[in-house]
């Protein structure tokens, strides 16, 4: 992907309070950021991210699993909702659903997610708990390109967080989230400004070299 001539259009998928969305919006207030959030999609009527989106004057859509007869139909509806906003980049920011084939087929290589561990260590829903149980001295957070697996996509960026001797799951997770929000906002901005390429398991931010283009 080459460098943009206009701000990248970012669609954010969120299920919760929207703290990562807020971090990206704050970063994007700088005209030099290179991206702007154009819409927020959630699978929950009461997601705090919707309030943040409305306050910012953003378009929103709610695509609830319960409104569809089966998972396949919901997958198709989600892909249509994302596509209606013509995104350059799709950011999963606390989106608590696995994205299905229709979205991956349309937006593959342009969807990024975040995870509270240094992947490939501690994938899955209990990454912070697992890091503590495993006796990790350092954990962190990872931004990945979304693929068909669970936390298996190519790694875009990572940041470490030390595990304190008195940490429990709540205190460690809170420190990770603070670093994670900053990492996501910085990474989205870099991808928007500099472009990115995905080759197998390797993600490079920046204009591809002539060798990569060939």
UniProtKB/TrEMBL annotation:
The keyword Transferase is annotated on this UniProt entry: yes
Top-level taxon of origin: Bacteria
SUPFAM superfamilies: Formyltransferase
One GO process term, biological-process aspect: 'de novo' IMP biosynthetic process
Keywords: Purine biosynthesis, Transferase
Gene designation per UniProt: purN
Pathway(s) it belongs to: Purine metabolism; IMP biosynthesis via de novo pathway; N(2)-formyl-N(1)-(5-phospho-D-ribosyl)glycinamide from N(1)-(5-phospho-D-ribosyl)glycinamide (10-formyl THF route): step 1/1
Pfam families, per database record: Formyl_trans_N
Protein name: Phosphoribosylglycinamide formyltransferase
Reactions catalysed according to its record: N(1)-(5-phospho-beta-D-ribosyl)glycinamide + (6R)-10-formyltetrahydrofolate = N(2)-formyl-N(1)-(5-phospho-beta-D-ribosyl)glycinamide + (6S)-5,6,7,8-tetrahydrofolate + H(+)
